[in-house]
Amino acid sequence: MHTLISQFWQLTFSGAVQGFIYVLISLGYTMVYGVLRMINFANSEIFMVGTFATIVMSRDILGHQPNTPNLHGFTLLYSMLFCLLASMLASGVTAVIVELVAYRRLRSRGTNRLAPLISAIGMSIVLSESVSLLTAGRAVIAPELLHKSSLFTILGANIRVDQLLVFIVAPIMFFGLQRFVNHTRLGKGIRAVSMNEETAKLMGVNLNRVISITFLIGGLMTGAAAFFFETVYEATKFNIGFNIGIAAFTAAVLGGIGNIRGAFVGGLVLGLLETYASAVLGSQWKAITVFVVLVLVLLVRPNGLFGEAIQQSRV
Amino acid sequence: MSMKTTLSNFNLRDKGAKVWANWGRPQRTVFAIAMIALAGVVPFAGNYSFSNFLNTPISNFADVLVYPVGMFVLMSLGLNIVVGKSGMLDLGYVAFFAIGAYTMAIFGKWTHLNTWEILPIGIGFAMLAGVLLGIPTLRLRGDYLAIVTMGFGEIVRITALNTQKIGGPNGMANVPNPPSIHTPIGQLDFNIMTPNSFYWFVLLLILLTIWMIRRLSVRRPGRAWEAIRQDEDAAELMGVPTLRYKIWSFVLGAGVGGAAGVVYASKTLYVSPDTFTFNISVLILSCIVFGGIGNIWGVVLGATFLAYLPERIRFISNARQLVFGLTLIVIMNFRPDGILPRKKREKFIKSGSEAGAK
Q1: Count of A-B CB contacts under 8 Å
Q2: Which residues pair with B7 in a beta bridge?
Q3: Nearest chain A residue (CA) to B140
């Protein structure tokens, strides 16, 4: 308890950073759930692919070594930008492949709800095991692109440059996505499908395309999260997606799965809670705290904090 | 509607059911005894040249038949009561397995009770956990229930991991074996050298579970579960006390998982939190959906196959999980209702009305 009080602002800041990473990943769950009413079980592996894409880009393509002397100015800028794009692209493409392989055929046949879940689990095993074979199951270290120097101290909280980057850029990406869903033609298509698939089809919405694009956007956001994760933690492994995937899914449910604004609040609340809980109880109990809170929230508000659906006006 | 028999609508279960319906009591009894006897001699299959293709490289065949194969069949049958019969998605089934296993380890080491005495205690604790989890959470539906049960599975595992009293991350070693059983035809030992006796015991548990499910299915609880699965609101309106029957199905499933846990702990002599991961819950769910959700024989077949496959192809060591994942994708895409789907009343009604329209 003492740590929580003495380092409150420090914990709040790092919790928020962690939370923003969750926000972006939980979009991968929530967008897909919004249109398909199905859990995208492979999203954790989509995240994992993104972390590896970041490393492949910075280490193998741009040729930065793990012990690279710190980059500056233009080199730093384009390295980071390329890594972000690589990660987003890899995750986005993986998400579209997941949709094609695991969901499309089953969806067109209108089968029971569990069959796509199992084929998505199969897809997630295939992805993580392929990467495990390629990396011999070992952890991979990312080159340190951005030197983790402390910028300034505010209210006793030490603001690190990498965390500040996440703190600023992740919310911008989130609000960009929200604008996209609310104000573009494609976004309208996504909202229409999430309200009623059949009616949307009758109104001329190309269902397959909209669903593919939903997966793509979810993948892009998850990929961005993977890049931010690598910027802060600089290491990955074939099974890295598992725990973070569960946390992000919990965040999505906490806010109300299928609800974009809910994902933002859910992710942020979860990140903060996790950090506070590990300060009070020790980090080994943080997962339990999260689940207990989730159960309590669901008992009071069975549809999450913000209710279901991308568009709230769904009956 | 053309009568094409493709891979995806061929239904062995319905064919089998037709044959079964035409049989009289003596034929059914003979068939059932023959099948049980056949299942009983499976551990010896590895010894003979005509059946030794079944042998598993690296691991001992009879051990594989106990864990994973036997255990997975047992747990899949238990989870099938929850997911298949009453249609609730439970992603934390491993918790009940863990509770059974830890009950065995704790009571076996700290008291003088033996495995046969601990078995009912383990089942009882698992069922109690089922009630405690069920009462607050079974009001939730679908995917919310899924995540809460998943959370429960993780809570049990993390609690075991962080409680030093029960070994923490190291788990508990030296769990006692079950004592021998004296039968008229000889003594049945249970130790590391006799995997066959464990197999027969698991087989007995499986048969008891199948018997229980079959009895319940044709009586009030079975009808209530079927109604809940098809439409919970309609069931409630028709006067089915849905919450009570949902808790019942949850608790029965939990009891079966607890029994599997007790046997597992006294077979392997060692329990550790690493065994009870989320992956096991997912795997058991896969067994059910893969085999044919809701249908006992499909579940048995699916669990046998999915538990056995990774052991059989152990020679491709690292890639075996990859093959496992690919198998799931391919089978689900071509047979989304599983290998042996459940009987579909709705299907008959639908095809009947379409034929009438012609």
Answers
A1: 120
A2: none
A3: A302
CA distance A112 to chain B (A): 7
Q: Give the whole-angstrom CA distance, residue A21 versus residue B222.
A: 45
Q: Tokens for A55?
A: 């490393």
In the structure encoding, which two tokens stand for residue B235, read together?
């069931």
pTM: 0.84
Tell me, what amino acid is at B307?
A
- Confidence at residue B71, expressed as pLDDT on a 0 to 100 scale: 93
Residues B258-280, mean pLDDT to the nearest whole number: 92
B chain contacts of residue A303, beta-carbon cutoff 8 Å: 144
CA–CA gap between residue A42 and residue A29 (Å, rounded): 9
Taking the C-alpha atoms of residue B49 and residue B97, their distance in angstroms, rounded to an integer, is 36
Model pLDDT for residues B133-167, shown as the tens digit of each residue: 888 888 776 677 887 888 889 889 999 999 999 98
Model pLDDT, residue B347: 46
Structure confidence at residue B106 as a pLDDT band (50, 70, 90):
very high
Q: What's residue B7's pLDDT?
A: 54
Does B138 contact chain A (CB < 8 Å)?
A: no
Question: Can you read off the two tokens belonging to residue B224?
Answer: 């209530």
Of A115, A285, A292, the CB nearest to B289: A115
Are the Cβ atoms of A295 and B148 closer than 8 angstroms?
A: yes
Interface test with A, best of B328, B330, B346 (most A CBs within 10 A): B328
Q: Is the pLDDT of residue B33 over 50?
A: yes
- Mean pLDDT for all residues in chain B: 85
Mean pLDDT of B120-125: 96
Ranges under pLDDT 50 in chain A = 311-315
In the 3-class helix/strand/coil scheme, how is A223-254 assigned residue by residue? HHHHHHHHHHHCEECCCCHHHHHHHHHHHHHH
Report the complex ipTM.
0.84
Q: What is the pLDDT of residue A24?
A: 95
Rounded to a whole number of angstroms, the distance from the CA of B325 to the nearest CA of chain A is 4
SS3 for A176-206 is HHHHHHHHCHHHHHHHHHHHCHHHHHHCCCC
Q: Is A278 on the interface with B (CB under 8 A)?
A: no
**Chain B touched by A146 (CB under 8 Å):** no
